[in-house]
Amino acid sequence: MSNFEKLTIETVRAEGARKILILPIGSVEQHGPHLPLTVDIEIPARIAARVIETIDGFAAPAVSYGARSLPQSGGSPDIPGTIRVRGSVLTDYLKDVIAGYIAAGFQSIVVLNGHYENEGFIFEALELCREAGKLDGARIIAVSWWSLLPQSLLDRLFGDRFQGWHAEHASACETSLMLHLRPELVGSARVDHATPPRAGIYAFPIEASEASTRGVLGNTSSSSAEIGKALFEEICAQLVALIREKCGT
Questions:
Q1: 13, 115, 134, 194: least CB-packed within 10 angstroms?
Q2: pTM of the prediction?
Q3: What is the pLDDT of residue 2?
Q4: Which candidate in 29, 42, 119, 168 is catalytic?
Q5: Is 193 a catalytic residue?
Q6: Which of 15, 34, 115, 168 is catalytic?
Q7: Is 78 an annotated catalytic residue?
Q8: In sequence order, which ranges of the chain are alpha helices (DSSP H)?
Q9: All structural domains of the chain
């Protein structure tokens, strides 16, 4: 437990000044026929819960709604289950949340992202905070969990079946992590998409069958709980190392 829920007006400044705060940010988003809508929240929240056991910090309540899922990274917009906010709204919201935590006394904050499309808006929110002087005296890390995984590990676990992070939506890594972290939420379907979208290309009109197969952009047949455990342990270890490097804890 992070004990965040035990903070009060009489303890928050002192605790915030000496401990790391991890803020998970995700989204409610379709993840194919086998995964729940909360994958992008579950994964960063559970990483945060594990990491604070090592660094003695707090895991803040997760930001559960994120940026628009794009066809080439989240599947067809025709698939139900995705609840999104406009990028400008998300940027303003995150700017206020991050500035609010700093004003409350937290001096070291890790923004841990679990939704692919959120990343640029998180960085923009932090830049706007910086320009407004809201980050003065604080130490901030913003990172998406997949950025912590070395290519060498992906090669060892998946061989040539890893198709790139833009095509990982509802695919092998997320499925494996959920099989390790929340197996009771993972259905039996294992969908593969033969032609994952290419990175960095937006084409209209959108062909749903080209964007995904039942909401899956890559492959799920190569997933396993064992792979999920290896991914999770590496992510947590890398994040602890990054926090110690940048925040000195």
A1: 194
A2: 0.96
A3: 59
A4: 29
A5: no
A6: 115
A7: no
A8: 12-18, 39-55, 71-74, 87-104, 119-131, 151-158, 172-181, 208-211, 225-247
A9: 4-247 (3.40.50.10310)
